[in-house]
Amino acid sequence: MKITLKIWRQPDSQTAGKFVTYQLADVSPDMSFLETIDRLNQDLILADAEPIAFDHDCREGICGSCAMYINGRPHGANQGSTTCQLYMRSYQDGDTIVVEPWRANAFPVIKDLMVDRSAFDRIIQSGGYISVNTGNEVDANTMLVAKDIADAAFAAAMCIGCGACVAACKNSSAMLFVAAKVSHLALLPQGQPERQRRVIKMVAQMDEEGFGCCSNTGTCAAVCPKEISLTTISQLNREYRQARSNPGWLSNSNK
Known about the structure:
Order of helices and strands: EEHEEEEEHHHHHHHH
Number of domains: 2
Strand order of the largest sheet: 2-1-5-3-4
Radius of gyration: 21 Å
Helix content: 25-40%
Largest sheet: 5 strands, mixed
Number of helices: 9
């Protein structure tokens, strides 16, 4: 296959970037998309040119590092998969593929296709954890959880924090990410002691990071590689409303 890649090149967040066009021949349909960029980088290095910077880690679709905007869609055209799970057989000989980084003020460009997603880390650090001592480790079936609740908690916990929801949203909202992290802890017994404080702190941190507001267009759920449901945002809204209606919410949020 012959493929044309139009890739965004940008030295850093303070310098203007631009698209640069590269031609690749003899691309195997069995190559993954990241392997194709590896191949291009090898050619660039041999030509004493600057290789393309991009994030990757597990290449198994579970870490969320491979964040790229491909032909106008986060992670590419395949539903429910990450960039590292995208293979060149999804394209035709002679195709042009446009590759960009996430576009959001809260995700400043580090270099080329790499963006700083540490805003997500700070949201988690603000309350996305369980710090209450729940005692010694016990058998899994000792603490009973209804199956529908366990299933909902597991579905929310599938979020890998890749940021596709932010990249796809016209407002650069992080509501789906925050909703997934709040929901899976709120649904489990171990998450109850910090439930109200958690949602208030995480939503406050999300706003402080500069993410936009949710307008319920649903693009976040449509492009999520783990197919987190839009109803998770409803769960977040309920959690936040209930926490704010508690007379002690302000003191709880400051603990």
